[in-house]
Amino acid sequence: MTHSTHSLAWAAPVATAPLDAVVHLPGSKSLTNRELVLAALADGPGTLHAPLHSRDSALMVDALRALGVGVEEVGEGPFGPDLRVTPGPLGSASIDCGLAGTVMRFLPIVAALAEGTVAFDGDPHARTRPNATTIDALRALGVRVDDHGTGTMPFTVHGTGAVRGGELVVDASASSQFVSALLLAAPRFAEGLTLRHAGARLPSLPHVEMTLATLRARGVQVSSPEVGVWRVEPGPIAAADVAIEPDLSNAAPFLAAAVVAGGRVTVAGWPATTTQVGAELPALLTRLGASVTIDGDRCTVDGGAGVAATPLVGGTIDMAHAGELSPTIAALGVFADAPLTIEGIGHTRGHETDRIDAIVADLAALGGVATGDADSITVQPSALHGGTWAAYADHRIATAGALLGLAVDGVVVDDVGATAKTIPEFPELWHRMVAGTDAP
Ligand SMILES: O=C(O)C1=C[C@@H](OP(=O)(O)O)[C@@H](O)[C@H](O)C1
Ligand SMILES: C=C(OP(=O)(O)O)C(=O)O
Q1: Residue 16 CB coordination number (10 Å)
Q2: How big, in percent rounded to 5, are the helix, strand and coil portions of the chain?
Q3: Residue 108 has what DSSP assignment?
Q4: Is the CATH number 1.10.10.60 carried by domain 29-243?
Q5: Where in the chain are the domains?
Q6: Is the dihedral of CA 83, 86, 87, 90 positive or negative?
Q7: Residue 115 CA to chain centroid, in angstroms?
Q8: Which of the residues 245, 280, 324, 352 is marked catalytic?
Q9: Confidence check: pLDDT of 438 > 70
Q10: 175 is in an annotated binding site
Q11: Distance (Å) from CA 326 to ligand 1 centroid
């Protein structure tokens, strides 16, 4: 089983002057892992240009290869090779999901299309991430799953090579990925799928919109006749050459860095249109008081003299649709003029770690004060001191520690290797941003 890199304690650099940097970011995790799945189920070979190369994408590539899909590295880009994907008959495999939600939710549905038994397991914490909806959905579709009654990994899917599909109701309150997983595989179901979400809430809707857009771009007929209902027609998934956008969720700590330290940070390669939830960062940072401009393919935050000169604007923000961005925004709450409450993020308790508890504990270790409840976190403005910031194997918690370290002397992220989940280049890119040496 692949575990993340050895714990790597990392002294976060302090920004001693306003920032002045242009940052180029590697590819989007959400787009890379969707396009890998769609390419594997497509009607011919296709290429992903500028894909992400990280632990989550490597786990997806390894899993697809184990299932019988050809994935070949071709060419060389700034962050690694392109990927040429050749679909093949899917068969028995043993899949390591690591801590990747996209692997542990997307591939069990793909496994139902395999002829053979497909075993799923992952990191110890991955076994605690919600996955009962995946297993329930498979059984409702007539697919046998052995989970020893746990509703979590490890479990085994007994694929017969075909799924009839039809109508299905799931509870996706714990993760939008349950919906995305079913929609991605549904064109290959004999009758397609009419999927209805029945549950208290549906988090991360932009990620479902991304799924629909990637399907449409490959010629699949999809619709959403009402909120929480989707229809996917059966039919081929067209082979395609697709370009992967930079990861805009990983832009969050870099753009927020200018807010904290002052000066300017530009993220290059900002797409003119995108389905990534990171597209909401300009509005979120503006809401907190920052100045954000988009000029062509460049998104720039001008943090003026930084939070030492001007506090951010506290209050309440609903981030149910963008929980992925909440660790960065919560960290910024330390520098606000009033408590900052982020609501609608109960589902982030089921992410790489319990993100609400993690931020509460990490801030307390630096002398800060935050409180969490079932669905929200409230961060009090406070003067922090140095100390250890635990990453909890969570890339977004690790980068939030780096962000605070810009303004707080002596912050040590206990395992910066956690960033390898979606951005292995993080420490290097961060140091270059602070030093202002990134290429224009
Ligand atoms: O489908 C995806 O690519 C993702 C969906 C979201 O999951 P949740 O709905 O579980 O929050 C998001 O937070 C995650 O980082 C990636
Ligand atoms: C929740 C996240 O990841 P995953 O795809 O593992 O759910 C995330 O990247 O913030």
Answers
A1: 8
A2: 35, 25, 40
A3: H
A4: no
A5: 10-25+246-435, 29-243
A6: negative
A7: 30
A8: 324
A9: no
A10: yes
A11: 12
Question: Cis (ω within 30 of 0) for the bond into 154?
Answer: yes
Fold type of domain 10-25+246-435? UDP-n-acetylglucosamine1-carboxyvinyl-transferase; Chain (3.65.10)
Tens digits of residue pLDDT in 307-345: 999 999 999 999 999 999 999 999 999 999 999 999 999
Residue 204 annotated as binding site: yes
Active site residue 209: no
**Is it true that 10-25+246-435 and 29-243 share their CATH fold?**
yes
Q: For 101-145, what is each residue's pLDDT tens digit?
A: 999 999 999 999 999 999 999 999 999 999 999 999 999 999 999
Q: Cα of 214 to ligand 2 centre, how many Å?
A: 19
Concatenating the DSSP letter of every residue in 172-241 gives -SS-THHHHHHHHHGGGSTT-EEEEE-SS----HHHHHHHHHHHHHTT--EEEEETTEEEE---------
pLDDT digits (tens, 9 = 90+) for 22-70: 999 999 999 999 999 999 999 999 999 999 999 999 999 999 999 999 9
